[in-house]
Structures are given as structure tokens and as C-alpha cells.
Amino acid sequence: MFLHRNHEMYFGSDIYLTLLLMFAGILTVLRLLWFTEGLKRISLTTIGFFQYITPTITFLLGYLFLKIK
After folding, report:
1. pLDDT tens string for the chain (69 positions)?
2. How far apart are CA 47 and CA 55, in angstroms?
3. ∠ CA(50), CA(55), CA(67), 5° rounding?
4. What is the model's pTM?
């Protein structure tokens, strides 16, 4: 996959940026695997509550602290 901006290729052109992009993908996969393992250890009620309350917390953080309107 190529990452384009202003008709320039970033992925593969610079070794530092290429490794950084690859490491970001690995971190994303690890985070999702750890999240899945964590879900196996708690009850469905707790999971449902977190999924219910997370959008509200995100909205409040954006509105009150980041001043996003």
C-alpha cells in the first residue's frame, strides 16, 4: 500500500518513515488482540456498559476540554 500526499510517495522512500508506518500497523494489531483477550475476562454486562458509555465520554471530552463544536 502506498501513502500519497502532494504526488509524493512516502512508504518505501525513507527507511525511518517506512519502519514507523509498519510499526504503527503492528501496534494496532497488538492493541486489538489485547482488547479481545481483556473482553474474555469480564462479564457481558460490563462490556455492554462500556460500549454504551464510551461515545458519551468522547463527546464530553471533545466538547468540554477540546472545545470542538
Report:
1. 454 556 666 666 778 888 888 899 999 999 999 999 998 999 999 999 999 999 999 999 988 988 776
2. 14
3. 135
4. 0.53
* β-strand partners of 4: 9
| Cβ neighbours around 8 below 10 Å, total | 8
Q: How far is CA 34 from CA 5, 41, 47, 52, 65, in A?
A: 32, 11, 15, 20, 29
Helix (H) or strand (E) holding 8: strand 8-9
DSSP-assigned letter for residue 68: -
Report the C-alpha gap between 16 and 27 in whole angstroms: 16
Nine-digit cell at 41? 475476562
